[in-house]
Amino acid sequence: MARPRIGVSACLLGETVRYDGGHRRDPVVAEVLARTFDLVPLCPEVAAGLGVPRPPVHLVGAAHAPRAVGVDDPARDVTAALAAQAETEILTTLDGVILKARSPSCGIASTPIHDARGNVHALGAGVFARALRRARPLLPMAEAERLADPGRRLAFVLAVLVHHHARRPRRLAALHEAVAPLLEGCDRAAGRRAAALARRGRGRAAARRYTALALAVLARPRSAARLRRAARGWIPAPARAKIAR
After folding, report:
1. Structure pTM?
2. What PANTHER family does the database record attribute to this sequence (predicted)?
């Protein structure tokens, strides 16, 4: 069976694609998670044709819909070019993404958003990350820095595995049979809700609701200890030890 594929900001894998020609290689992503997943490098700024090195951009405007404009040339607006990268075909093959924090394209919740005077007035998502969330709302997404925490890292890995499992064509009952032990191990009440949905649900819409419930449970596990116990049936012991330590 093919391993799940996750997209990763290319700079986190050591590729020299940042605006200044540098990188931000993350060993947890590039080494630990590479043992479990196939890593697909992504750089929306390079893919949009902005080049390396390139004049830096930052986010300006309303917190809910900022624009990506040049730091030194505010008339240079690259918002549409970055958002368009969330529609590329390769993203439909992924079961998760790990993105660079604080990036004007890739940040998920940590990117500074500036007002007209240049002052930071909010933190939010970069243009690419925001567009990707709209296009693929069930896709597990994480900033690399958050995955330094072993509990969050394990939860993300499990979310990717569940997404991978759910993407394969199958009846909802078969999906529930595979995922139910994980959900019940994390949260018994959620496990009961999932069982009820599996009994009543039919078709693709029900499968999406079931997947959304499973991913929500993994995003907010009741405890790290329960999460580790629940992972035993999903991740082999050697890989689990490296992911969760």
Report:
1. 0.93
2. INNER MEMBRANE PROTEIN
